[in-house]
Design brief:
Layout (H helix, E strand, L loop, with lengths): L1 E3 L14 E4 L2 E4 L16 H18 L7 E8 L5 H12 L5 E6 L9 E8 L6
């Protein structure tokens, strides 16, 4: 098991890792729309979604992979009325790559975030 971390994404705000690599898979912790300074760059769901995905990209990069290696994501939304907005932004990053995905409505997220996303990715470069 290998712990992954990067200075290009916000530090964990609790007793957990940004990501863990085990048996060729990378499991990220949920990312919210915080900047590396630990602040929200924007309070709207669109801006937070962009930041969340940028954070995921940075964490995956620490493992030497990218969004094209993602096999599963989970999206947590405080307001399901934001689904279309988040979905459009998500699609713009993943393009034709379509990992399996779940979207879950939640009552609240850490720091009153509007969206959180975690993912599971295949770290093929370690096993070829």
């Amino acid at each position: 098991m290998k712990y992954l971390s990067t200075e290009n994404a916000p530090k964990a705000i609790g007793p957990y890792s940004q990501a863990i690599e085990v048996n060729g898979m990378i499991y990220t912790s949920g990312q919210i729309g915080l900047t590396v300074e630990g602040l929200f760059g924007t309070l709207d769901v669109a801006g937070q979604t962009h930041q969340v995905i940028q954070n995921l990209i940075a964490v995956l990069d620490a493992g030497g992979i990218g969004l094209s290696d993602v096999v599963k994501t989970t999206i947590y939304l405080v307001n399901m009325e934001d689904f279309a907005t988040v979905n459009e932004i998500y699609a713009s990053y993943f393009g034709s790559h379509k990992p399996a995905r779940s979207t879950v409505a939640v009552k609240a997220l850490p720091k009153n975030a509007l969206v959180e996303i975690d993912c599971i990715a295949f770290a093929a470069r370690n096993y070829i």
